[in-house]
Amino acid sequence: MIKVQERCFFRYIITMICAIALLPLISSAKRSAMVTGLKCEYLKNPLGIDALQPRFTWRLDDQRHGARQTAYQIWVGTDSLEVVGRKSKIWDSGKVDSESNLVVYNGEKLSPFTRYYWVVDVWDEKGNKVQGGSCANFETGMLAAKNWRGAWITDVQDVDLKPAPYFRKTFMAKNKVRSARAYVAVGGLFELSVNGKAIGDSRLNPMFTRYDRRLLYLTYDLTNELKQGNNTFGILLGNGWYNHQSTAVWDFHKAPWRARPTVCMDIHVTYEDGSVDYVVTGEDWKTDLSPLIFNSIYTAEHYDARLEQPGWNTAAFDDSKWKNAILRSAPSQNIVAQALRPIRNTERIAPVSMRKLNDSVFVYDLGRNISGVSQIKAKGPAGTTLKLKHGERLYPDGRVDISNIDYHFRPTDQFDPFQTDIFILSGKSEESFMPRFNYKGFQYVEVTCSEPVKLDAGSLVGYFMHSDVPVLGKIQTSNEMINKIWWATNNSYKSNLFGFPTDCPQREKNGWTGDAHIAIETGLYNYEGITVYEKWLDDHRDEQQPNGVLPAIIPTAGWGYSWANGPDWTSTITIIPWNVYLFYGDSRILSDNYENMKRYVDHLTEISPQGLTSWGLGDWVPVKSKSSVELTSSIYYYIDAKILMQIAKILGHQADHERYAALAIKIKDAINAKHLNTATGIYGSGLQTELSAVLYWGLVPDALKTKVAGNLAARVEADGYKIDVGLLGTKSLLNALSENGYADVAYKIVSRKTYPSWGWWIENGATTLYENWDIQAAKDISLNHIMFGEVSAWFYKALGGIKPDPQHPGFKNILLEPHFVAGLDEFESTHNGPFGLISSSWKKQKRKTVYNVVIPANSTASLVLPEVSKAAVQPAHSAEGKNIFKLQSGRYRFELK
Question: 32: pLDDT confidence band, cut at 50, 70 and 90?
């Protein structure tokens, strides 16, 4: 026994000596360069894409100061071993001298239903080769409509039939399966199952589009789900936005595409011997009604567990009493891959409390406002009905109050209660219910039982649901109120991201354009949203009228073309692509939408020959003062022209560049001629929105900027440092102040805890942003809105000072100008840009402020600081002025008085 212990001891000593000896090598390895983060179409190893020229992106992970890429080489092929060996018959880019980490495929024509592998090597600033690691892959889907084999099927033609349909098909796999793919296109929503098992963890597929102009399909890998012998495919179809059976003011129930849900599916089964079988939808599929007796994306779901058919999606099930599916025409000929981040249940949220009001009524409080669903477990006699009402507020008696969110609902009967799921028990055992084809906005759930049922605190949970976009940014400060505002803003942003940006997850669920462009930077600083925004701009092109007009909500069934649109709202067509370009450095979204931008701006020009327009809603839901609609709408007309001028130059359209540059000058001159008092430096009535919008969007003559900015600061001071803006003003107010020498004033506004302010909401229990500054407002009082969400982006831009450089977009060069505002002791911000992690943080220490910054490899930064007392600790920088520095990649530390 002693000898064994001695041997173990000696082995431990030898291991420790070796470890210590290897420390320098380990440290060196950590410092070595690597190629990481390989993505195709901004997705990791995507399955079933339709891009004929997909985009490849990567990062150079190199911690050395001044590290940068000077060249790259990409190999693409169908044989992974060849690609790893740097050989390829499909595409070898050759060594390309370039710092770009965004490259468009330029090889042989891609084939459908094919897996491609790719790898990239780069060369650093010293000419050393940095070899990529294991290869990445992507798999093509249909690529063209002609490649579909299946037929579109449904069960009936009755759009008013409420129960959701089941479809099933049993297939004999004759040999061992090597690979299997399912390609699923649906009008409505669906859940796919194989041999009784649900496939995938994403929700609400496919995402909402203008169904009669574009449908999305999904690709699933079924290789591990199929076995030799009998296999059964099951599909449950939901209504979604396709067959809107609830009635509200936006008339989705009158949509031109509306029909009974329908599906087309192709399954490709490849055997080990190389032979292929195809299983496709057709009249031979069997169908029956499901226990999901009603489903509405807008209101709720009703489920009768007594109608369940156990094993309906397995081979052993007897479907002799089911009928055959019927054929129907395709909803659209334009069917494209859903290549964006999926919707998922991202957080499980247990209630913080449960209150039993009586034997049949229970109220659960999740402790925070979310978008998503609840799941309940209960046991009771057959036929016992549980009604789950979801809301954001409580009445004084403790029951759930939905009066703030059912404002636009227009029910035609009592059988579709708003945000109220209905679950009818089978009586067999403990049962569970969670909606499949619906989501809600709520904090509280009131469960009302038709018969007394035993429920406890663990009987119900909530699930936060939204587009599962990766987190890119974070802020942390010494002021807990600021931290809560940032967190609440991001909760509202995620609560309103469901394959397109929405305004609220309960009352409307609409893609309001104004809300989205105000919050675009908040989204892009905090999350990887490019795939969602590219999809939403596809929706814009689908909805645009031939004369260029866009609706106020996108997608739409027809509502919003004649009210609520206008440049202050529908400038999304220019503002969204421009900001995505700034953050990602990818011009594809510009070229894809260029003609649509022109059509929109040209229409504005046609109806506004003098350069001014009053078309628009104006500064929506202001605190008290309403700004000039002509001024604010004309400003957005100017923004459109200016952005289009810049895009034309980027895309090489010189004549367009000159034309829209002249238009921008004309609009600017018209605004200043009518709305600017040059003697006083006052625009309009001198309101916060009027003064800040012209400053932020660049309309003030250079000679008057100081005066106008001073007037804005004086106005804020006269207003008691209280915010007095609506939606448009929240975008410009804080930024105009911080960019013109009044960052301390902006921070005073943000850090307020009294009405009206973001802090006032937090002080009153908000975990999301509200629709109205006045918590007691009679209307416009949703408690989960993103429209006032610019504040989260302002934290990055003003306090962290992180901004993209329009001359070097995608954070190739980072503009840094942090503000060490009075009243805040510490601030830290990080953002993962296309080249890697950017960090900007500062801390006040007695008589000095220490500022730390991290610039990722292959990037540079232009830094502007207040008076510097000491040089950076790291020497790899150059001073371009007294307080202006040009930084290469690496870590820096500055000390300031």
Answer: confident
Q: pLDDT for 521-575, tens place per residue? A: 999 999 999 999 999 999 999 999 999 999 999 999 999 999 999 999 999 999 9
Q: Is 776 helix (H, G, I), strand (E, B) or coil?
A: coil
Average pLDDT over residues 817-844: 98
Beta bridge partners of 389: 420, 446
CATH superfamily, domain 34-140, is Immunoglobulins (2.60.40.10)
| The pair of three-digit structure tokens given for residue 354, joined into one six-digit string | 């449960």
Ordered by start, the domain boundaries in the chain are: 34-140, 148-340, 344-467, 473-799, 826-896
| CATH C-level class of 473-799 | mainly alpha
Pairing of strands 361-378, 353-358: antiparallel
Please tell me the distance from the alpha carbon of residue 297 to that of residue 244, in angstroms, as a whole number.
Answer: 8
Domain 344-467 homologous superfamily, CATH: Galactose-binding domain-like (2.60.120.260)
Cβ proximity of 369 and 392 under 8 Å: yes
Q: Do domains 473-799 and 826-896 have the same CATH topology?
A: no
590 contacts: CB under 8 Å, gap ≥ 6: 577, 578, 581, 647, 650, 651
Task: List, in sequence order, every residue forming a beta bridge with 69; answer none if it has no partner.
Answer: 124
Query: Which residues 6+ apart lie within 8 Å of 77 measured at CB?
Result: 83, 87, 88, 89, 90, 91, 116, 117, 118
Q: Is the pTM of this model over 0.90?
A: yes
For residue 165, is the peptide bond before it cis, meaning its omega torsion is within 30 degrees of 0? Answer: no
**Does residue 414 contact residue 489 with C-beta atoms inside 8 Å?**
no
Cα separation, 674 vs 683, whole angstroms:
9
Is cis: bond before 555, omega within 30 of 0?
A: yes
Residue pair 360/453 in contact by the 8 Å Cβ criterion: yes
Choices 3.20.20.80, 3.20.20.70, 2.60.120.260, 3.40.30.10: CATH for 148-340: 2.60.120.260
Top CATH class of 826-896 equals mainly beta
Strand pairing category for 189-194 and 153-154: unpaired
Q: Provide the β-strand partners of residue 45.
A: none
